[in-house]
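G., before I forget:
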Amino acid sequence: QQQVKQSPQSLIVQKGGISIINCAYENTAFDYFPWYQQFPGKGPALLIAIRPDVSEKKEGRFTISFNKSAKQFSLHIMDSQPGDSATYFCAAGGSNDYKLSFGAGTTVTVRA
Amino acid sequence: NAGVTQTPKFQVLKTGQSMTLQCAQDMNHEYMSWYRQDPGMGLRLIHYSVGAGITDQGEVPNGYNVSRSTTEDFPLRLLSAAPSQTSVYFCASSYSGWRGDEQFFGPGTRLTVL
């Protein structure tokens, strides 16, 4: 039973478009929400992370939106580029736990 | 810095065989962990360690053993391989644990159990 539910499983976007990936969680003890990016044949790498004291965090073309009351958070990739084609994982963790729970992943394909 | 290294990159086992997946990091990180990645399941934590001599179970520990005798190394042992253990295994490390610390992942080991 996954503690973090991620959707969609895959998406295709045209170059310059916006990619949106959504995640939801139930455990109210979670207070750290990172996103990891994984290219084929490689290990995941941290892309961006947010804590629940803010509703949005932006780094370049990547933005996390966080809705604490709905227990949902999402990743927006603006002006999507072919180099953004990868699998994206959301994750969540809590202050009293060393364990990080990952979503199932979303494969993003950006068409040139 | 080499970061997190894993060996082997690929491995094929027969059911019942045992083997050790190696993981090493040169960043002096206290926290190390093992995940398995399966299609549609994301990354699931197998075991983790918060320092030399200290290990604990993650979400899917059955069939796997770990030990941490040094800060640098965190091997994962498959005691008696089963087809259900066919997966891609990732080792990760971070400075003190997940709490806001970036986890650095190795390149993975693709294991097939026949």
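The interface with chain A takes residues 4, 31, 35, 40-45, 48, 50, 56, 58-59, 90, 92, 97-100, 102-108 of chain B (CB under 8 Å). Chain B has no helices and eleven strands.

More on Monday.
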